[in-house]
Design goal:
This protein has 383 residues and is mainly alpha-helical. Helices cover 73% and strands 2% of the residues. A two-stranded antiparallel sheet has the order 1-2.
Length: 383
């Protein structure tokens, strides 16, 4: 667990440090620094309280996953195999466009490779992969998860999927009692870095020098992108003031969707708001512009709507969500929500967009399916 906390602190400190040396036009405001640091403290406290309040859940999670999730996955392995085949079909279409020299942004915008199917498939395999390698699963299941993840990467020629995989594996370390799983993290990270190099060379049509520079590029990009959120926080805080956004910190896209149905919003949090690019500066090493969007941090919506006390409200809300997942033994949902809690100080709202919402919904659906399977189809549940 302490490895997870250490990584969260490193993310926060180095992202702030990079904002000062990376080439950003302005310094992060003092208010943002204070609120983001307090949010990190609250997030860590939430994790510690959850761990102390529900010790049995953390002690039995390995047995529970093996006896319920793995058995369910093996029982419906034909579905997993079919999903991999379908993902392969979508990836083959994408790969043909890549061979024709179509750039990544056109794959998603003009050819629709980042559509609804991708959102669901990506959310599933990004979570399945770290789970099957963290817990003791069969070679067949690990192979299906690996192939599914590789095909998902091909689908949109994106390396960002790999960072999510590493992040989810780090969160799973809260269930680890020794250093063996931490050592596995190195192997997972090395594998993801290798895939990043391959995707840079063959999928993003960049020269081989860029491929071998993927390691430093990924490291720099992690802290660069996280630094974006400290600047974007000001915009989300301003957008969430007023009574019409009182539900957005809690429900995000879902609240905004229904609000637009029944009323005319003065400041809609729509695709135009989320995808609008803010020029924050130019990289000292690359010279490329810092174009920031999407990473409007979760805590900023609470602070904008409720003031500084919103951080406490967010902490209580996160505790309730995590407690709900623990009560239902919803492991996928627990991990994805905890990732937004622990790493969310410099990350987006978990329900900011339809893509975010579907990722969480996919995890919930998998958990609920396992719950139904073990409850009604001769499965087994450990309390």
């Amino acid at each position: 667990m302490y490895t997870v906390i250490l990584v969260a602190i490193i993310y926060h400190v180095f992202s702030i440090y990079y904002s000062g040396v990376g080439g950003f036009n302005n310094e992060i405001s003092e208010s943002i620094l204070i609120h983001s640091t307090l949010d990190l403290v609250v997030n860590i406290l939430v994790l510690l309280v959850v761990k102390a309040r529900f010790p049995t859940f953390f002690e039995n999670v390995n047995v529970y996953f093996n006896e319920n999730y793995i058995k369910t996955f093996h029982r419906y392995r034909w579905f997993l195999f079919g999903l991999v085949i379908y993902t392969g079909y979508l990836a083959s279409q994408s790969f043909q466009l890549i061979l024709l020299g179509i750039p990544r942004h056109e794959l998603m915008q003009e050819y629709g490779t980042g559509g609804f199917s991708y959102m669901l498939i990506s959310g599933f395999f990004k979570m399945l992969f770290p789970f099957v390698f963290f817990f003791n699963t069969s070679l067949k299941l690990r192979l299906l998860a690996t192939v599914g993840l590789l095909l998902t990467i091909i689908l949109t020629a994106s390396r960002s999927e790999l960072m999510y995989v590493i992040g989810f594996y780090i969160i799973l370390l809260v269930f680890s009692k020794g250093y063996k799983k931490v050592m596995w993290l190195g192997a997972i990270a090395a594998s993801m870095i290798f895939l990043a190099i391959i995707s840079t060379i063959f999928l993003q049509n960049r020269p081989i020098t860029d491929g071998f520079g993927a390691l430093s590029d990924m490291t720099r990009t992690v802290f660069q992108y996280r630094a974006y959120s400290y600047y974007l926080a000001q915009y989300s805080m301003e957008a969430s003031t007023g009574g019409e956004k009182v539900l957005f910190p809690f429900l995000g896209y879902i609240a905004e969707f229904f609000s637009r149905l029944f009323s005319s919003l003065s400041r809609p949090i729509d695709s135009d708001f989320v995808s609008h690019l803010h020029v924050l500066g130019f990289g000292n090493e690359t010279g490329r512009p810092f174009l920031a969007n999407v990473l409007y941090p979760w805590w900023s919506w609470f602070v904008g709507a409720f003031g500084s006390l919103g951080l406490i409200l967010k902490g209580l809300y996160c505790f309730i969500l995590l407690a709900f997942c623990i009560a239902g033994r919803f492991l996928f949902t627990f991990v994805i929500l905890l990732s937004f809690v622990i790493f969310g100080t410099a990350g987006a709202h978990p329900l900011l967009t339809l893509t975010h919402t579907l990722a969480v919904a996919t995890c919930f659906f998998v958990d609920f399916f396992v719950f139904l399977n073990v409850r009604y189809f001769k499965g087994r549940i450990y309390s």
